[in-house]
Amino acid sequence: MLKSLICAFLMYSRIPMPHVEWKEENRRYALGFFPLVGAVQGMLLVLWYLLADRILLPPLLFAAGAVLLPVLVTGGIHLDGFCDVTDARSAYAEKARRLEILSDPHIGSFAVLHLCLYLIAQTALMTGIHSLRMAALTGCSFVISRALSGLSAVTFPAAKKDGTLQSFVRPAHRRVTVGMEAAFLMLAGTGMLLLSPAAGIAALAAAGLVFLYYRHTARRDFGGVTGDLCGWFLQLCEIGCLAAAVLVQHVTEVLL
Question: Which residues of 101-117 are buried (b: 16+ CB within 10 A; e: fewer)?
């Protein structure tokens, strides 16, 4: 279990970890621990909010830091998947060609455009975090997105028989992994609802809708999931949760 936890952080974060041998038995539960990377990211966001609030940092500077934090924690691995999938879907080609584009290390103009728009939108939405509760709720969304991403990896059909994702899926103890992901979903979802019932419901609903859209898109456009698609979904899920929570919070404040 401990070696699987370390493997999860070694693969999906840039947080220093002890060295473990990269073999299948050490990756058996790695996907199940994937949401813990989001938990660390969420705790850092809360700490950043507390610091920004204490030194009276302008909202835009807080938002810029909040957008940079995930990149510092993960190294941008999920944004890379977001860009690859954007390029592949923009090609309007056959499934086989789209899968080839996913493996291409180069970035296309559509990916650059969508990435810029994504980061602008995320920064703008982060300025809507006006309380510690909202910062913590957003932190919970990082756990939700990874739990759903890990769940899809072991339950959705695979688009390719090889690749980085399959190196984690093949040795995975699927029943235990599904149970771990479900537990993280319940914990993070309950946390959201306790922090703010209205914003929590909105964020969870957004996560569910994005998950259904991801499932449909993966099957229709690629014939299954890949590591890039998991990253693409994770990014959409996080910004969807953030947008829903901020919007509901704003509407609630206006009405009250």
Answer: bbeeeeebeebeebbee
